[in-house]
Amino acid sequence: MKSKTLQLPLQTFSLIAAFMVWVILSGLMPFIKADIPLTGAQLAFVTAIPVVLGSILRIPIGYWTNRFGARKLFFINSIVLLAPIYYISIANSFIDLFIGGLFLGISGALFSVGVTSLPKYYPKERHGFVNGIYGVGNIGTAITTFAAPVLANQFGWERTVQFYLVLMIFIALLNFLFGDKNEPKVVTPLKEQLKTVYKNEKLWFLSLFYFLTFGAFVAFTIYLPNFLVVHFDLDKVDAGLRTAGFIAIATFIRPVGGWLGDRFNSFKVLMIVFAALTLSGIILAFNPGLTWYSFGCLTIALFAGIGNGVVFKLVPMYFSKQAGIVNGIVAAMGGLGGFFPPLLLTFLFNLTGHYAIGFMALSQVALACFIIVIWMYYQEQLEQAKKIIDYTVEGIMVTDAKGNIQKVNPAFTTITGYTEAEIIGQSPRILKSGKQDKHFYEEMWESIRENGSWQGEIWNKKKNGEIYLERLSISPIKNESEQVRYYVGIFNEAKID
Q: Which of 29, 58, 108, 438 could form a disulfide bond with 331, CB atoms 3.0-4.6 angstroms apart?
């Protein structure tokens, strides 16, 4: 039990360290480019390249976490990261930075470990908050963005990078000693898990949402330090502090997003998130001064952080049996969301001389997500209504205003013997037993017209010809013009003493 209680703080601290490593290049870029000449395109690629492998590997790492456990994944990858960290510290060309940065992406992929492992230790109603706490590991990017320039001023950027070697060795030892050796494992083959989820539209909608929310977080993290220096003439340390503030807000608000997803309807929270991101993108598109630019960025930090927490509340809710692979796919899409925007912004700036189109694209993607989440919200309501009907023990039959059967539930089939395929489009007369006369039905419909419903006992006939007594209630469903659109009959078989 003690080992289990340690996993949340241990894995969160491990993620902090991993994210510290992930953004070494962007945090130190103002210093690196002073020693290694880089063009604008090369600079964009070097700062964005750690995101590539960090995104792609999130899928297999999520799967491997389910199969081998978080302890092994954090330990092995912490050791593997020693090589690219050291290689970057002795880099003297664009190619060196590119190769080192590519494999540095392993650290970003470790995000999939905790979001797959930690929900195993907590009930579903706490998954949003727990994953939100784990997501605080994002603060590692803020620590590097703030601390790395300060250390580079004192020791040089090469020695600063080498300090991270000690950090990774420490993380490897912590996980080796205190990681849970008995974490529950899932050994379903990767191909089989992919088959069960890739056609599910919810997977790709959640991936799009995280592509925007986490992608915005990563993109601004790697884009802001150099942009603030070049565009607003801030000094390197000031730019690092402001970027660290952005990261801190997005990171510490993430558990709040998870809590909001646990406490309220997650889709309603996401509606607010995407509306705010849409407006923020529009503000930034108008190329404002530093004050309004800061407001737009901080608003993005706030709502992207909330969105990150909410999305990973939804993943285990919809994909509890395939959490590892789905967490990996969604997290990978989020990482790729951080790779493309800096490149797109650089390309558009070189083409047009400003960033307006890029920020407007951000607002339009957010608007698209806003529309999709509204659709998902109402789909969820319809699915819940369907489940209520399907799991009700009473038989339910819905007809249109003309009396054609539109919908029945499984209990209807159990009682009458007619399947949904057999009964849809038929008239309820198919159930008539012949025991009630015309006057009975006239009184029934008169009661429905006058009183808005009818209830009583009626003899009907099953598919096999058996006559049975049922207790039945019939109610009309009207539209806003008080016109009857449907009739709903709810019944059960009465026992005859």
A: 58
Does residue 450 share a domain with residue 362? no
- Per-residue pLDDT tens for 328-343? 788 777 777 766 776 6
**Residue at which a domain ends, from 366, 388, 410:** 388
Whether 361 shows a pLDDT value over 70: the answer reads yes
**Can you read off the two tokens belonging to residue 491?**
């019944």
Distance CA 29, CA 230 (A): 12
DSSP one-letter code for 189: -
Q: Are residues 377 and 396 in the same domain?
A: no
The domain of 463 spans: 392-493
Domain containing residue 474: CATH number: 3.30.450.20
Tokens of 444: 């029934």
C-alpha span between 375 and 35 (Å, rounded):
51
Q: Please state the three-class secondary structure of 455-484 as a single string.
A: EEEEEEECCCCCEEEEEEEEEEEECCCCCE
Are residues 149 and 275 located together in one domain of the fold? yes
CA-to-CA distance for 235 and 184, rounded, in angstroms? 49
**Domain boundary residue, one of 388, 405, 437:** 388
Distance CA 303, CA 333 (A): 18
Runs of H (alpha helix) within 118-265? 127-135, 139-155, 157-178, 190-197, 201-232, 236-252, 254-263
**Total domains present in the chain:** 2
